[in-house]
Each structure stands twice: as C-alpha cells, then as structure tokens.
Design brief:
With about 270 residues, this protein is α/β, with parallel strands linked by helices. The protein has one domain (about 5-225, about 235-270). It is about 45% helix and about 20% strand. It has 9 helices and 9 strands.
Length: about 270
C-alpha cells in the first residue's frame, strides 16, 4: 500500500518557499487501513527483517500467543515508544512518534519525484535528541542537495501557526548541531561522492549554500488546518530563499490524536 496515495495533495507556492497540504482521503484509503499499514511499517523499521518482526506479524494476524522469550523480546522493541497495555506511553510522546513515522512513510513513497536518494530513519524514541530527519536529493546532473527537516504534531489546544514557529526556532538554534551529528552517517556509505557531500553539511548550512535546504512538517487533525501557513518562512531563513529551498508540509487526518492511539492499539495486537 502506497501511503502517499491515501492523501489528497495540494501544493502552494510563494516567492520564498513552497508548501503542501496532504488531507487524508477516506475513499481512497479508510482510516483503519491507513492505521494498520502505518503500524506495520513502524514495526518493520524498528525490528528490521528479524524473527522478532515475523513473530509480531504472525500474532497480529491472529496467531497463537508467544513463548515467554519471544514475548519479552517484542516488549523490548515496543515498550520504549508505545509503552505496554496497562502502562502506555504518554499521549504527547505517542503522537510525536506516530507523526515522525507517517512523514517518513510519505517521504519514502513519494520520493521518486523529488530525486530522493536517502532519508534518515526516525529515532527509536520520539524524544531522541538531535534532528528529526535529513533527506538527501540528487538531480538529473547527479548533483547532491539536502533538506534538514523538523517534524511536529499539533493536537490539543495548540495551533498550527504556533507549532510551526516552534519548529523554526529549533532549526534556527540547533540546525548546525543536528547536521554535525548526521555527518558521521555519510562516512559509512559506499558512494565516495555522497560521503564527501556529508562532510560539508554543516558548512553548507551556515553559508546558505544552494545545496542546503530547510523543511518543516506538521501533522494534525483536519479541523485544525489553517487557511494560511508558513507565511514567515522566508523571513526566518532568508539565506535559503534564492533559489527557493524552504519547504513546508501539513498532513491531516480526521482526528490525529485518535489516529495515533489506534496505531498503538494495532501494534499491541502483536504482543
């Protein structure tokens, strides 16, 4: 199931930035099916191609209860992000974690049209320090560029505008530090050109190089989607506006908090 096809996308353009609105389409994909697919993808990211994932999948599909060791192993993978039945993780952390994985899935699924060659995975915890994600692109001339993303959820009494402002502040204050952490990843890739590109991430950010870009994504409920968004993006990051390298994204489902809880419930069915 291609998750990006579960959303109707509208692109908006300005002189300094672009942004896209992704509204869940229940006709294309019922919300329950979307939650099931995302739960499966989260567990694949967390467990990889291991017997732990196989055990989770079989139990989630209605298989028999796990032996004690398999159950304990699954709890080690699930509890840090979701908690366990009877002792769930906080809703705030859960919503942030689900937001990161929804963005990751949408970016991977729609990456071909943007020349995406690498997307860093979500952290093992929603509260993991450091940047939320780095996306590496390559254009038709095989030139690399990157976008450093800050990923947010907007629920409760928060507004999308205030959430975006918080993301701006975090990127402005910590962007170079986040990229310094990502630099070591590039030393492990097989492509010498890409490895060299990773070595310049921080300098390119500080200098506003054409190869550097900024992204802010907010995940929320449809009722909270504003008519305008990201209006001050260019003013906050002027060195990334010529050429335009600022991109915003709002992704909305009917009730994001309820959606996150449903994803957790589905993950727990594999215990």
């Amino acid at each position: 199931m291609a998750l990006h096809r579960s959303f109707a996308r509208t692109d908006r353009y300005s002189k300094t930035h672009t942004w896209s609105l992704h509204l869940h389409d229940p006709v294309e994909s019922p919300l329950e099916a979307l939650a099931e697919e995302l739960a499966d993808r989260i567990m694949r990211v967390r467990c990889g191609t291991t017997p732990v994932f196989t055990a989770w999948r079989e139990r989630a599909d209605g298989g028999p209860a796990h032996p004690a060791t398999a159950q304990a192993a699954l709890q080690a993978f699930i509890a840090p992000a979701f908690g366990l039945p009877g002792a769930p993780a906080s809703d705030d952390h859960l919503e942030g974690f689900v937001a990161e994985h929804l963005w990751y899935a949408l970016t991977l699924d729609g990456g071909a049209q943007d020349g995406v060659v690498m997307v860093t995975k979500p952290g093992f915890l929603a509260t993991s320090p450091g940047g939320d994600s780095l996306v590496i692109h390559r254009d038709g001339t095989r030139t690399f560029s990157y976008r450093l993303w800050e990923l947010k959820k907007c629920t409760g009494g928060a507004t999308v505008g205030s959430t975006v402002s918080t993301a701006y502040q975090q990127l402005d204050s910590n962007g170079a530090k986040y990229l310094a952490e990502y630099t070591s990843i590039g030393q492990e890739v097989d492509d010498p050109g890409l490895a060299a590109f990773f070595g310049d991430l921080v300098v390119n950010w500080l200098e506003g190089s054409p190869s550097a870009g900024v992204g802010v994504a907010v995940h929320t409920s449809q009722a909270k989607v504003p008519k305008k968004a990201f209006t001050t993006f260019g003013a906050r990051f002027p060195r990334f506006t010529d050429p335009v390298r600022l991109r915003g994204m709002i992704t909305a489902v009917d009730d994001f908090a309820a959606f996150a809880r449903r994803v957790r419930e589905i993950v727990w069915t594999g215990l």
